[in-house]
Design goal:
- This protein is an alpha/beta fold and 388 residues long.
- The protein folds into two domains: 249 residues, Rossmann fold (3-Layer(aba) Sandwich), CATH 3.40.50.620; 96 residues, Tyrosyl-Transfer RNA Synthetase (Orthogonal Bundle).
- Helices cover 52% and strands 11% of the residues.
- The strands form two sheets. Strands 4-5-10-9-6-7-8 form a seven-stranded mixed sheet. It has a three-stranded antiparallel sheet with strand order 1-2-3.
- Helix 6 crosses helix 7.
- The longest helix is centred in the last third of the chain and has 24 residues.
- 43% of the residues are buried.
- The N terminus is likely disordered.
- The structure holds tryptophanyl-5'AMP (TYM).
């Protein structure tokens, strides 16, 4: 049985609701009991993707896993698998939220598998006394438009809002809830006697999509969601399902510091998918934490510290796909040939390019909305099914 599932340390903390400090990912792997993505696994995926590996797996942003080797085996031997990820809707999605969706879409393209996307309007509502269901439902709609813009296959993707799809999930939710006891959930999520009972019950609802098919499920998400999967893995087999497999990502840091994760609670430190070019430029130029030196003279002499430089990390993590270009930036910036203002300009341009493409695709999302939620091939099958 899982015991302590939160990592809380003097210098960093990772829970589904909070990430603070400089996260030591090696230590997280040990404490959560997950595995580093090995060279063998990378080679295998590279073969299947014909050498076109996504930047996020090449650069180790997706760095840890459980049972990814078994997923590849199931694929190779024809049993197949499916993908599952999700989102607790909020007023606006930021670039950090996009990471699991971009990677899930890439996996769908490579393996041609079904994707289930859970929109937890219930979770969001129950977690904050100030929110109304009307609000979380409106945010859900807006966030779904952003998710559709990522480009999933409409016949193999089902996006569902918990408050709406619950009717079809409820029998299986009850079987899961019956296997979870109070002290397990309390210990896993650090709840106390004042926590509302909705939050106590909620893990059963985040676990249920891992059992939508009698195949192994692969979940791409940041490592903060891991506690749910630990619970799932304790109860899945007795219920006749596979233990969920996961591929975990690191956190995109906030603009203002290389610690913690980008979060909507500090708006100037996050870049939203709706931010206009001028805003993006201003946020990056003004707030992005720099590992460069305080004066041009010192920068030319000593160069930048890439380990704490946020513009460099963002470029490395997602925005500069080209390996030779990122190497050039690293070498020029760390040697002092490139100045802080220059790397920030490069980043602002790249971010605006991605956001502009995103906005264009998002304009077409409304047209595709019904297919993803109700009448695409997979969506229709899912509405006809009751999960019991
Ligand atoms: P939510 O809405 O907090 O986050 C959505 C997804 O984004 C990831 N994420 C990040 N990834 C990288 N860098 C960041 N700064 C960053 N911030 C957030 C999260 O790990 C998540 O994958 N309870 C969930 C909703 C959910 C879910 C799921 C998530 C339901 N079912 C299955 C993943 C998989 C939530 O609150 O996500």
């Amino acid at each position: 049985m899982s015991v302590l599932l939160r990592v809380q340390d003097d210098d960093f903390k990772v829970t589904p609701w909070e990430v603070t400090g400089r996260v030591d990912y090696e230590r997280l792997i040990q404490q959560f009991g997950t595995q580093k993505i090995s060279k063998d696994i990378l080679n295998e995926i590279s073969k299947i993707s014909r050498g076109k590996m996504h930047v996020m797996i090449r650069r180790d942003i997706f760095f840890s896993h459980r049972d990814l080797d078994l997923i590849l085996k199931d694929y190779a031997e024809g049993r197949g698998f499916f993908l599952y990820t999700g989102r607790a809707p909020s007023l606006g999605m930021h670039i950090g939220h996009l990471i699991p969706f971009l990677f899930t879409k890439w996996l769908q393209d490579v393996f041609d598998v079904n994707v289930y996307i859970e929109i937890t309007d219930d979770e969001k509502f129950m977690r904050n006394q100030d929110y109304t269901l009307k609000q979380t439902s409106e945010w859900a709609h807006q966030n779904i438009l952003d998710i559709i813009a990522v480009g999933f296959n409409p016949d193999k993707t089902f996006i569902f809002k918990d408050t709406e799809y619950i009717r079809n999930m409820y029998p299986l939710v009850t079987s899961i809830a019956k296997k979870l006891n109070f002290s397990q959930v309390k210990a896993t999520f650090g709840l106390d006697a004042s926590s509302n009972i909705g939050i106590l019950f909620y893990p059963a609802i985040q676990i249920v999509p891992t059992m939508f098919e009698k195949k192994r499920c692969l979940i791409p998400a940041a490592i903060d969601q891991d506690p749910y999967w630990r619970l799932q893995r304790d109860l899945a087999e007795p219920l006749g399902y596979y233990k969920a497999a996961e591929v975990h990502s690191k956190f995109l840091p906030p603009l203002a510091s290389s610690d913690g994760k980008m979060s909507s609670s500090i708006p100037e430190s996050a870049v939203y998918l709706s931010d206009q070019p001028k805003t993006v430029e201003k946020k990056i130029m003004k707030y992005a934490f720099s590992g460069g030196q305080a004066t041009t003279e010192l920068q030319r002499k000593l160069g930048a510290n890439l380990n704490v430089d946020v513009p460099y990390q963002w470029l490395y993590y997602i925005f500069e796909d080209d390996d030779s270009e990122i190497q050039r930036i690293a070498s020029e910036y760390s040697s002092g040939k490139m100045l802080t203002g220059e790397i920030k300009k490069i980043l602002a341009q790249k971010v605006n390019q991605l956001l502009e493409e995103h906005r264009k695709k998002r304009e077409k999302s409304e047209e595709a909305y019904l297919r993803f939620l109700y009448d695409g091939k997979l969506a229709r099958q899912m509405w006809e099914r009751v999960h019991s």
